[in-house]
Amino acid sequence: MSLQFLLDGLIAGSMIGLGAIGVTLTYSILRFSNFAHGDFMAWGAYAALAVVGALGGSTPIAPLSFGWPLLAAMVVAMGLTALLALVLDALLFGRLRARGQSIIVVMASFGASMALRSLLEFMFTSSPTYFSRAIQMATPIGFGVRITADQVALLILTLALVTGMHLFMQRSQRGREMRAYSQNPALARVVGIDVAKVIRATWIIGAALACAAGVMVGVLVQIRPLMGLDLLLPIFAAAILGGIGSVPGAVLGGLIIGLSEAAAVQFVGAEWRAAVAFVILMAVLLVRPMGLYGVAER
Predict the structure, then answer these.
(1) Which of 60, 128, 174, 224 has its CA 20 to 30 A from that of 101?
(2) Cα–Cα dist 132/70, whole Å
């Protein structure tokens, strides 16, 4: 039996996990579910595509299908996506959040999501596009598993981003402030934590990682305005499964969702893939609402 589905699930799960980090941070710190988060992935991918075009294209570095211009474009796109998130917070979410009614902010995120998606379709049309149309040959590594150079590179990049994020949250002053604020906002204000800086850091980190995930999807699959919407349910399922507020939990949840979807395609049928995230989400909410690494609220 081929174990290819394990590799496919690992790759999909790594991208879902990157997106879930932003969702779990937004919910634990800003106290609302941001349904526009998936669209940050799409905007990040298109921003990177535009920057690559401005740089004159990306000459591949053998054996990859992309080159240094795409990596530089991704860094620029991460900054642009973070700026988009900050502008949205300044113009919309921040003002509504000040009123103290989280449900209004959640509904506003629905509206922002539809607006961002429609704007992308208006600017780039709904037709899929690609960073590169080069065809890569997969290399067999045993047990019926084949892997491409792009997949190896993106797995390494994911590991680097997740490790960097974990070190930032655990060892940096801003990361400790973010964790403190998520646990007790009132006490964090009392001890002098700058709430505005914590909120800005939350948006910047979440949007930048969403952009990175979107670029990865664009490299391995394709770029579409609806790509963020397609990944929204798996991202939320991963964040809840891992435990709201836990970065390692979000990554682990993403891997579980990705592997479960790949297993469903392998053993049940591709038409059931979209249902897996929903089933896991419902099971977690019924059995362990706080998730794998979450703590029950008092």
Answers:
(1) 174
(2) 10
- Quote the CA–CA distance of 42 and 38 in Å, as a whole number: 7
Closest CA to 244 of 216, 272, 285: 285
DSSP secondary-structure letter at 60?
A: -
Nearest 5 degrees, angle CA 200-CA 203-CA 208? 125
Confirm whether pTM is higher than 0.90. yes
Q: How many CB atoms lie within 10 A of CB 76?
A: 17
Domain boundaries, the chain: 4-287
Cis peptide upstream of residue 63 (ω within 30 degrees of 0):
yes
Q: Of 42-51, 125-134, 284-293, which one has max mean pLDDT? A: 42-51
Rounded CA separation 157/251 (Å): 14
d(CA 214, CA 87): 20
Please state, in angstroms and as integers, the Cα–Cα distance from residue 163 to each residue in 48, 104, 179, following that order.
Answer: 23, 34, 17
The CATH-assigned architecture of domain 4-287 is: Orthogonal Bundle (1.10)
**Range name among 43-47, 64-68, 196-200 with the lowest pLDDT average:** 64-68
Cα–Cα distance measured from residue 140 to residue 145, given in angstroms and rounded to the nearest whole number: 6
Exposure string (b/e) for 104-140, b if CB count within 10 Å is 16 or more?
ebeebbeebbeebbeebeeebeeeeeebbeeebeeee
The long-range contacts involving 139-146, CB below 8 angstroms and separated by at least 24 positions, are 143/2, 143/3, 144/1, 144/2, 144/3, 144/4, 145/2, 145/3, 145/4, 145/6, 145/7, 146/4
Q: Locate tokens 């045993």: which residue?
A: 142
